[in-house]
Amino acid sequence: MTLYQPFLDHAISYIKLRLDLAPYPIPREFESKSAIVGKGKNQETVVTSSYAFRTPKLRQIRAAHVQGGKALQVLNFVIFPQLNYDLPFFGADLVTLPGGNLIALDMQPLFRDEAKYRAKYTEPILPMFHAYHERLSWGGDFPEEAQLFFSPAFLWSRPKETRIVETIVFEAFRDYLQAYLDFAEQAEPVKDPHNLQAIKEAQLQYTRYRADKDPARGMFKRFYGEEWTEEYIHGFLFDLERSLSSVS
Fold first, then answer.
1. CA separation for the pair 36, 14 (Å, rounded)
2. Which keywords belong to this entry (predicted)?
């Protein structure tokens, strides 16, 4: 079992327990992809597996799980709400490289600067954030442009010990996901046309930024080539723009 398999197993089983899931279409070429990297004794097989679901309130619940042995372990787990709900995004980026671990966990807001929105979706989870922030050291500075897309409850850490990932980070992942599904359960559809347009624009801004700045792009290009990588990013990981174009 790999480092982030328990995270993925928990997320899928817990979401199935809480929600009535339907499959979200995954292009066949993205379901699973493998490559051999390194040489000699350092050679590893890297496998990228994709998972996706949807519900009436959540447009896409998806995971990209990269298993590369000692060289690389990654889980990117994101939930995108339907365009008629003002829910934030759930985002978990869990990365382990030979040099250490990178952990990013957040409910990324649609409207970061609106007081009513912060009161609704950020302030209720701040006590949870502070509890974990005391147990996980802050990961340091990150790009200013990226700060627009994270909430004050953004959990960002570079724990040195695998044991911390397996215990404290797993607990945080579990609790953030539970809190997010609580928000989703309580969410009511938005009907005002002006607000619906604002949600659509905010979702597009977020997905375009994430697609353009995806830190995994270089890794995927090395493993699988540029064409597959760009299609994976725009056609699966951050596919809102493509989805809207196909509908129109």
1. 33
2. Oxidoreductase
Topology of the domain comprising 5-247: oxygen-dependent coproporphyrinogen oxidase (3.40.1500)
Give the single-character DSSP code of 71.
G
**Distance between alpha carbon 216 and the CA centroid of its chain, in Å?**
12
d(CA 138, CA 141) in angstroms, rounded, equals 9
The pLDDT tens digits for 42-70 are 788 899 999 999 999 999 999 999 999 88
pLDDT digits (tens, 9 = 90+) for 100-154: 999 999 999 999 878 899 999 999 999 999 999 999 989 887 777 777 788 999 9
Ordered by start, the domain boundaries in the chain are 5-247
CA distances from 142 to 132, 135, 204 (A): 19, 20, 22
Lookup result for tokens 């009161």: 119
What sign results for the dihedral spanned by CA atoms 30, 173, 208, 200?
A: positive
**CB-based burial label for 170 (10 Å; 0-12, 13-18, 19+):** middle
Residues 6+ apart with CB under 8 A from 72: 44, 46, 66, 96, 97, 219
